[in-house]
Structure formats: structure tokens, C-alpha cells
Design a protein that fits this description.
Number of strands: 0
Helix content: 55-70%
Shape: elongated
Number of helices: 3
Strand content: under 5%
Mean pLDDT: 92
Bound molecules: zinc ion
Structural class: mainly alpha
Length: 55
């Protein structure tokens, strides 16, 4: 996935996504609001983590 590969090269942004996109008391992403957690951005950041580990 292109977005994950881009994020893998931007550890600062990746870390910010993983810090801000966390579930609230209702299980929704705090940053996206209505989106269910894990949201798309958090998933992409997680995948970027995996990409970097295997790089
Ligand atoms: Zn989110």
C-alpha cells in the first residue's frame, strides 16, 4: 500500500497518527470522531510500522 510506504518514511507523522487516533470510551476514533476504531489512518500507520520492521 502506497500510503503505508510513505508513512514508513515519515516516522514523526506516523507516531502522531498513532498518538492521536486512539479509541474513546465508545470505541470510536477520538480524532476521526464518528469512525470506528481502528480507523483507516491508524491501520495505515500500523502497516507502515510493519513495513519498517521488515525493511
Ligand atoms: Zn482516526
Amino acid at each position: 500500500m502506497l500510503m503505508a510506504r510513505l508513512l514508513a518514511r515519515m516516522p514523526d507523522l506516523r507516531q502522531r497518527v498513532q498518538t492521536e487516533h486512539v479509541p474513546d470510551a465508545h470505541g470510536n476514533c477520538q480524532e476521526c470522531g464518528v469512525a470506528q476504531w481502528p480507523c483507516e489512518l491508524y491501520e495505515i500507520a500500523s502497516r507502515a510500522d510493519e513495513l519498517q520492521l521488515s525493511a
